[in-house]
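dumping the sequnces here before i forget
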Amino acid sequence: MIPMGHTIFNLTRVFTKYYDCETRSIFVRCNTVFHWLIRFDSSLLRTKWFTTKRTSVRWSPMVKAELLKIPEKKLPCQILIVAIGPAASGFVQSHLLTDDFQVVGALFSGLSDSDVNTFDQMSPADKNCYIYRSRQIPDVFMCLCKTDVSAEQSYSWTEQLFSCISTASPHFYMSILCSYMTSEYRSEVPVSDMNPPFLRALKTPRFAGTPLCPYLEQPNLVSGLPAQLLTYCQMKDVKAVLYVCYTDTLYLDTFTMEVFKPLVQSTPIKDVFQENKKAGEVMKHIVDIYSLKNSLYL
Amino acid sequence: MFVPRDNKPIDFKGFTLIYPALSVGNVAQLMADLLISTMTMHKVGYIQHPSLIPLVGNDPYAHPSATTCKVVTCCEVYDSVEHNVVIVQQRSPFIKGRRNAYKKWLAQWIRECGFSKVVIATSSSADERLDTQITGPQFRFVASDKIEADYGEMFRNFYEWDELERRQTFPAPSVLEAGDRGQGQLYIPGGGIAMALFNDLCSDTPVVLLLMFCSEGDNIPEAIELTNRINRWLGLILFHVSES
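..and the predicted 3d for all of it:
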């Protein structure tokens, strides 16, 4: 039992709240009468007292049925592309996410009070995190993470993503795309001379190829969800590459999304890429939807 | 959990563990970086724990003109078989509220590995020093019973190291209760999990805590001094004095 402080319900008796870790419920004990008075159900507990938020994953019925037939209980995967943030997600949505891809799962890591989503949760500017899989090639996955996953939740998010996706294949390739502000980039050269937006990369030792942009120089770091995903791949000793786009614009624009465009010729994205003439239109549409939410003056 | 590199099982029995605690000025971590780069230690594994903020970057020990990519993560284990030393280098802070969980796991892992001795390096806020600590060497040590028995005299008499002064608890005990000099508690403000880890391990593991008093700023001189003192004891890097 963990004491949680005193609550004075009236002037004559002091009630003490206790939390039972095992049953995850709250007991209130009146210290003039030694018996348990009230028991709260754990669903009433909110993060006011407990800061452990965990990410949860949901898979479609089709995937759940498939998992029952697989002894390892993990879907085979050869290519996994994870896009984190609006710029990377916008690029993947406009250039890579064709009608061939269907939603097979979703990750939930909580929304903040200022997040406003549409009712059907399918708008480009919605804060959601869907996992897509190709219908034609079922071991190609994409995950567009538009929710703000905090550093504290990154471990749990990664655990949940890989709970049903296997990295065991010898041909497994993972590509992580994310974006940072140029204010977080440290270099001897002034950032204005570097013509933002620009790309930098980090890769695991198993990734044999050379990324299409320079490696991230010291002393720059990547933290949070992209870091946790790369760390996971590093520990599992699989092929993974992380591309970071440093941008100086606060709001999403087509220039920031287009900086990822050379990656369509890089492994593993080139194995998924199909020429899409509507990519420009889709990017513009995404920028328009985001600008509706970002208007300072309405 | 500890994940060995290349999935090869590793035996740390008999090694000396140097654990730099996340502390004020990052002195202990700078010391660890100095030792790892000077002794060109090998990365033997990763520590993956939900209490650590994730972090990746390029190799900090590479030559400035190097153009390769060697990813480093938030917590890695390096060893040197030649020197019989293992260092756990932690590069990112703890997630709020989860320090204790990590400390418990770390203490258990240290016991399981069977290290011959554990050196916890840390630093303490200079603005909370006692009056007697303001002048003189800014280095202190705290030894467990086993280390005290083996090295206590050497530390005090030969190296002339100072033991960390104990502080009176508040309210101070009366004269009758005060008893011998051993009363009072150890207080290391800004020392991270060092004190808690020391208290956890001192009953059954030979563990010593070495600390420097410092403030935030350019802490390279403190890191070098801490490294020199550890090196003097463990004899990791030999300095040759040229005779001319």
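The radius of gyration of chain A is 23 Å.
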